[in-house]
Amino acid sequence: MFLNPLFYWIFILIIVTGMKRIKREREDFGIKIYNLSSEWKNTFWLSIIVGLLLSAFTLGVGVTLTYPVILLFGLITILISITGRINLLSASYILGITYLVLMFVPEWINIETILPFHIHTDVHLSGLVSLLALLLLAESILLFSSRNDVTYPELTLSKRGIWVGQHHLKKLTVIPFFSLVPTGSLTPFADFWPYFTLNGETYGLVLTPFILGFDHIVRAQHPSFAAKKLARSTLLLSFLVAALAVGSIYYSLFSFIAVLCAILGREWINYRFRINEQNKPGYFQSTDRALKVLAVLPDSPADRLGIHVGTLITKVNGKKVSQPESFYHALQTSGAFFKLEIINREGEIELLQGAWYEGDHHGLGLLFVSTPHDHEHLNVSNGEG
Fold first, then answer.
1. Average pLDDT, stretch 357-374?
2. Given this model, what pLDDT does residue 172 score?
């Protein structure tokens, strides 16, 4: 694993992604909301569990990957991630493109005149497609786990020229799994490292990292609802690809069909979600009678009180609020204590109260839709990253 460039690339990717997000947070809200590694945070144990399940499958079924093939999908991962579009770091694209390269490039050109190895030798295409299906399953699990996790707010201009709020449903992780590699393409680095003999061929065990990520823009619904919908669609896609992968054991054309379904299915899921979000009214807009919470700063008074994204603030210290300015003004009238009347996501009215502490955010850690802090220099983007 430590010889694979992806192991080091993931750290570069996490840092660059985090720095880009923090820059946008400061432009929009004048403050850093989440730390640098937030996209990767809380995915460690999930990635380990998924990696163990993948390892059990690849070793149990006997899926083999040559070292050049591992380097190939590593190179494809790096090239895709350089674009900055985290949403392309899906197994559908990475392993899908890898499969197509293995299928067609060696037929069109003499790849050995360019690379010092022959990438098509001993490639288990059915196994590669099975791996694709399992990684799509891992992607759906990662989406399901995002329902009660952090998402990333930002401000953007609507088609009508007014500022609206939206969230990035975004995660970035690395899934390490063991795969069987023919010893002919593997240089042993330790005498104790295990080797296996299958059908007269000797294989070594290699720990392979796979970078997985997604980034969906949510503006027309609560991010947790969006994550649930996307997770279900991705789960169904993984089942379809898995069924075709099983069929490819008996009829090899099914592996090609599975790859096409994975790529086109991923594209359709993204397109349908994006169009639905663009055509529906904004979820984070306030009303004449309440102020809707766009984001809550971690470890802030609002966070300690259990206020969540999407909560409606109706009164502050007995005064009705419907604009950020009236909210901040009402907070200043109570000294060291404050009282809030809110409507939670279930539609229930709650009365909350608390005290100010030194160092607390001036707005209790609540962020709303307003003119961006640095709107004159803000590079507004409505696309998916």
1. 83
2. 94
In the 3-class helix/strand/coil scheme, how is the chain assigned residue by residue?
CCCCHHHHHHHHHHHHHHHHHHHHHHHHHCCCCCCCCCCCCCCHHHHHHHHHHHHHHHHHHCCECCHHHHHHHHHHHHHHHHCCCHHHCCHHHHHHHHHHHHHHHHHHCCHHHCCCCCCCCCCCHHHHHHHHHHHHHHHHHHHHHCCCCCCEEEEEECCCCCEEEEEEEEEEEEEEEEEEEEHHHCCCCCCCCCEEEECCEEEEEEEEEEEEEEEEEECCCCHHHHHHHHHHHHHHHHHHHHHHHHHHCCCCHHHHHHHHHHHHHHHHHHHHHHHHHHHCCCCCCCCCCCEECCEECCCCHHHHCCCCCCCEEEEECCEECCCHHHHHHHHCCCCCEEEEEEECCCCCEEEEEEECCCCCCCCCCEECCCCCCCCCCCCCCCCCC
**Confidence tier at 63 by pLDDT (50, 70, 90):** confident
The encoded tokens of residue 9 equal 């690339």
Angle in degrees, 0-180, between the axes of helices 253-279 and 91-108, rounded to the nearest 10:
140
CB neighbour list of residue 169: distance below 8 Å, 6 or more residues apart: 143, 146, 151, 214, 215, 216, 217, 218, 223, 226, 227, 230
Q: In whole angstroms, what is the distance from residue 124 CA to residue 285 CA?
A: 51
Q: What is the pLDDT of residues 303-344, one digit of tens each?
A: 989 999 999 999 999 999 989 999 989 888 877 788 999 999
Q: Give the span between the Cα atoms of 305 and 352, in whole angstroms.
A: 7
Query: Looking at the chain, which residues constitute the CATH 2.30.42.10 domain(s)?
Result: 291-367
Describe the crossing of helices 253-279 and 223-248 by its angle, rounded to 10 degrees: 170
Closest CA to 215 of 308, 95, 81: 81
**What dotted CATH number matches 291-367?**
2.30.42.10
Q: Dihedral of the CA atoms 16, 18, 21, 25 (nearest 10)?
A: -140
pTM above 0.85, yes or no: yes
Instruction: Evaluate whether 203 touches 122 at the Cβ level (below 8 Å).
Output: no
